[in-house]
Amino acid sequence: MSENFAYPVGLRLSGRRVVVLGAGQVAQRRLPALIAAGADILLISPSATASVEAMAEAGEVRWERRRYQEGDFEGAWYVLITTDDPEANAAASAEAEARRIWCVRSDDAAAASAWTPATGRSEGVTIAVLTGQDPRRSAAVRDAVVEGLRDGTLAAPRHRSRGPRVALVGGGPGDPDLITVRGRRLLAEADVVVADRLGPRDLLDELPPHVEVIDAAKIPYGRFMAQEAINNALIEHARAGKSVVRLKGGDPFVFGRGMEEAEALAEAGIPCTVVPGISSSISVPGAAGIPVTHRGVAHEFTVVSGHVAPDDPSSLVDWAALARLRGTLVLLMAVEKIGAIAAALVAHGRAADTPVAVVQEGTTPVQRRVDATLATVGEKVAAEGVRPPAVVVIGEVVALSSRDHR
Ligand SMILES: C[S@@+](CC[C@H](N)C(=O)[O-])C[C@H]1O[C@@H](n2cnc3c(N)ncnc32)[C@H](O)[C@@H]1O
């Protein structure tokens, strides 16, 4: 076989001595994987980069501040030569060869007895790529494989059954690009997806035909509450051995009833993974050009549900306290009650001319923004026919970007 062909192998280095010569950029890049593998690392170098020094200080490597000496490889299983001293490298390489220790050389790949592959990890899979003399191509292939596994575009189904399980996945505010990489991968692996009306519905169109998509709003619930019926559907499909994703808008734990589902699954003994999502409370204002905080303008933002009117006895919100805050208020589920909420804030002392923006269907192609003040927002929302889903932003941050929206 050619000189460029290497036999791939996975070294199990836990507790085994690895000697690294040199503590510059190359060593800095290689050390984390050796540390992660649990190797007993002896680092020999008169000086080190700040990052390598930190590893030594943290006790992750034993650092001897000196140059290489004959005999340093005694007891080693593997050595890495990364110094820029050609004579020391040649002598060290000769010692490794004489002792039959696999040896990587950063200065001269052709003289080395081992090569470091470009490596990556995704969900328990290690990818290692060797191309002989083209490390950039190795890195590019590694990146493509890791990326494909992460986002699910490289289909690699698991064949060992992991038992019933459900993933509660935050799908982000609506734009299908705003789901996390992990969420997208779990969706690509799902057999059953239980989806809400809110959230990135476009993602559902990408699913292969065998995936059963269940509209959570249409699950028949007879004598159960709707939420209980959804919980039961998740449990039943998981028990039937299906890989189940509960796809929710925004983040599952921000007014998403995610915890109720997690608790129901725990009670049923079904493991559940929660994948955070980008919440509309921050991203929808952002998509409309409104930062929820801004230096010198707002040092806090408060996210509140507006689904219950301020004078409703079931309300858990202290509107008087909120009215006293100077920062940004972000209201979700507040379109219907916005007139009463704005009036309560003004009654409790927030200035009537405080700028307000209402952003409907943020991050989607039909996003729109309506600007008002606390005094006018109730009327304006009605006059302009604003419909849910919409996020209401109240505070001076709105004025930072409102010129084009009045
Ligand atoms: C039941 S809550 C769920 C919130 C979600 N878990 C999150 O983190 O974004 C639904 C409310 O979120 C807001 N919302 C969600 N997606 C939105 C979007 N794309 N544009 C505007 N508001 C949105 C609306 O206020 C809507 O009434």
Automatic annotation (TrEMBL):
Reaction catalysis annotation: precorrin-2 + NAD(+) = sirohydrochlorin + NADH + 2 H(+)
UniProt domain Tetrapyrrole methylase: residue ranges: 166-377
Enzyme Commission code: 1.3.1.76, 2.1.1.107, 4.99.1.4
Pathway: Porphyrin-containing compound metabolism; siroheme biosynthesis; sirohydrochlorin from precorrin-2: step 1/1
Gene Ontology biological-process annotations: cobalamin biosynthetic process; methylation; siroheme biosynthetic process
Keyword annotations from UniProtKB, A to Z: Cobalamin biosynthesis, Lyase, Methyltransferase, Multifunctional enzyme, NAD, Oxidoreductase, Porphyrin biosynthesis, S-adenosyl-L-methionine, Transferase
Positions annotated as active site in the UniProt record: D196 (proton acceptor), K218 (proton donor)
Molecular functions (GO terms): NAD binding; precorrin-2 dehydrogenase activity; sirohydrochlorin ferrochelatase activity; uroporphyrin-III C-methyltransferase activity
PROSITE patterns according to UniProt: SUMT_2
Family from the record: Belongs to the precorrin methyltransferase family.
Alphabetical list of NCBIfam families matching this protein: cobA_cysG_Cterm, cysG_Nterm, PRK06136.1
Name the UniProt record assigns to this protein: Uroporphyrin-III C-methyltransferase
Organism: Streptomyces iranensis
